[in-house]
Design brief:
Layout (H helix, E strand, L loop, with lengths): L5 E5 L3 H10 L5 E5 L25 E4 H10 L3 H7 L3 E6 L2 E5 L2 E2 L5 E8 L1 H13 L4 E4 L2 E8 L4 E8 L5 E5 L2 E4 L7 H7 L7 E4 L4 E8 L10 E5 L8 E8 L3 E8 L9 H9 L5 H8 L1 E2 L4 E3 L4 E4 L1 H4 L10 E3 L5 E2 L7 H19 L6 H24 L12 H17 L10 H11 L8 H21 L19 H13 L3
Parallel strand pairs: 1-2, 1-12, 2-8, 5-15, 12-21
Antiparallel strand pairs: 3-7, 4-7, 5-6, 9-10, 10-11, 13-20, 14-17, 14-18, 14-19, 15-16, 16-17, 20-22
Helix pairs in contact: 1-4, 1-9, 2-9, 6-7, 9-10, 11-12, 11-13, 12-13
Protein name: Dehydrogenase (Flavoprotein)
Keywords: Signal
Organism: Streptacidiphilus jiangxiensis
């Protein structure tokens, strides 16, 4: 498609690259402004891009995000597979221990791609910069917008090497500069009201190490997640992300008061203190390939640009804010990449429908971005409010009721005490909701029946408790490994150095 006009995208991170790719179908020129060095051609450097604060930590691209990426970059999921990213059936390829027990491994209700951030960004960068319309302006920082309260007509730029300033005219400016976005201040400079900001911080800190698992486990062992539940003291969790080249990223995290340490001994001790020894055993069988990296900027935060554009609210033509510059959630839930992709897919749909210079484009895009991120925000905040020491808000009675209902639903979907089968339909809905593939409204179909069945089972359990008093069930049962996985784990232990 041949476009007209000039679009400027500020920031060459994940959202900025996708925005540039979407705009390349509608603009004659797309200028990608990046403060760091960004090579114009592959091969890309082996290390993580310095502008990505979480580059060395684990990442999931959920089915919803992969579908959005496929719309933006046709053939992208095939490229993921060819590059070695691990496709995980959810919940079949996941060993997950939650407050409700081990997640039943019942095939595939959804799926996710597990890979390093460097691999994902390299693939997106290659596809985007291959577009003839896209050029890169590196080592350059945006310092403000050009225009007035009615229309943005360009952007002020500063060369970080020469220290010189210039103005770049544009029909559309897209702010994809991430968490440090200066868009609220820029809007004030144009005489507009900045957005209100919502923030919830449970104090989560996570530490990650790249490791090489033993050969028997390197290529098809499932992802592992072990966690304590919200509402039961500080949260502690650990995750094994299988990534390309048969390597793992092992991430340990804790909320305020339970943060993991950085030293190797503290890292292993934290893993051993989790409710199941499985993750600690896997870590001890593996060889470290890098030092431990820590990250603590994990608060849920969103800037309500969507409220500025409602009704008669003022929003300038020619300006859009996307990605983490709009909002981001606790990364432990794995939603960030997918929300960004869904948001840019919504942006692309507006461009397809009305074009680059259509009146009201920015208003409509900000509203659609808010919708794209709403489910992830509700999910994350609903969990984070329950941890002790949360900053920014306190759980309401409605929040606590929702949490209790969520716990009941998970226990109904799982196998409480191993004495009855899982509710596969409810479990599938919970997995799809958690991976942003379905709306919570899906529970209206499966939840009532499952809760009634559980209530009946609880009544029967109470009436027959005396006859089962001698049955002793372990607090944390063994993980639901397949025979092949047990064999691989045994072999890995056998060949491990003493």
């Amino acid at each position: 498609m041949t476009g007209t006009g000039h679009a400027v995208v500020l920031g060459a991170g994940f959202a900025g690259l996708l925005a540039a790719a979407a705009l390349a179908d509608h603009a004659e020129r797309v200028t990608l402004v990046e403060r760091d060095v960004l090579p114009a051609q592959p091969p890309w450097p082996a290390g993580p891009f310095c502008g990505v604060p979480q580059a060395r930590h684990g990442h999931l691209l959920l089915q919803s995000g992969a579908t959005a990426l496929e719309r933006l970059l046709p053939g992208f999921t095939a490229e993921l597979s060819q590059a070695g990213a691990r496709r995980l059936a959810m919940p079949g390829d996941l060993l997950a221990l939650t407050a409700a027990g081990w997640l039943p491994r019942t095939g595939e209700a959804s799926h996710a791609w597990s890979l390093s951030r460097n691999l994902l960004d390299s693939l997106v960068r290659t596809r985007t910069l291959r577009r003839p319309a896209v050029t890169v302006l590196a080592r350059t920082r945006a310092t403000g917008l050009v225009g007035d309260a009615r229309r943005v007509t360009g952007v002020r730029l500063r060369s970080l090497d020469a220290g010189t300033d210039r103005t770049l005219a544009a029909d559309l400016v897209v702010d994809a500069t991430g968490r440090g976005s200066a868009a609220p201040r820029w809007l004030e400079e144009l005489g507009l009201t900045p957005p209100t900001e919502e923030r919830v911080d449970c104090g989560l800190v996570y530490a990650t190490q790249l490791v090489q698992p033993p050969e028997p486990l390197a290529h098809d062992f499932p992802s592992v997640s072990v966690q304590t539940g919200a509402g039961h003291g500080p949260g502690r969790s650990g995750v094994v992300f299988p990534i390309e080249d048969g390597r793992w990223l092992v991430s340990l995290s804790g909320t305020r008061g339970a943060e993991p340490g950085l030293g190797q001994a503290a890292f292993h001790a934290f893993a051993r203190a989790l409710p199941s020894r499985l993750l600690a055993d896997l870590l001890e069988l593996s060889e470290p390939l890098d030092r431990i990296h820590r990250f603590g900027n994990t608060a849920d935060r969103r800037r309500r640009y969507d409220r500025l554009v409602r009704g008669n609210g003022h929003w300038p033509e020619g300006f859009v804010v996307v990605g983490d510059a709009v909002g981001h959630t606790n990364p432990s839930y794995g939603h960030g990449l997918s929300v960004a992709a869904l948001g840019i897919a919504a942006f692309a749909a507006e461009l397809d429908r009305r074009g680059l210079c259509a009146p009201g484009l920015g208003r409509r895009v900000q509203q659609r971005l808010a919708v794209a991120g709403r489910a992830a925000w509700t999910f994350a905040v609903g969990q984070d409010l329950l941890y002790p020491g949360v900053v920014g808000a306190s759980p309401t009675t409605a929040d606590l009721r929702a949490a209790r209902l969520g716990e009941r639903l998970h226990r109904a979907a799982f196998r409480p005490e191993g004495r009855r089968p899982a509710d596969d339909a409810l479990l599938a809905d919970l997995v799809r909701i958690g991976t942003l593939t379905a709306s919570p409204a899906a529970l209206l179909r499966t939840a009532p029946r499952a809760l009634l069945r559980r209530a009946g089972a609880a009544s029967a359990t109470a009436s027959g408790a005396a006859s089962r008093a001698a049955v002793r069930v372990p607090a944390v049962p063994a993980p639901p490994l397949t025979a092949h996985e047990r064999s691989a784990l045994s072999l890995a232990r056998a060949v491990a150095p003493v």
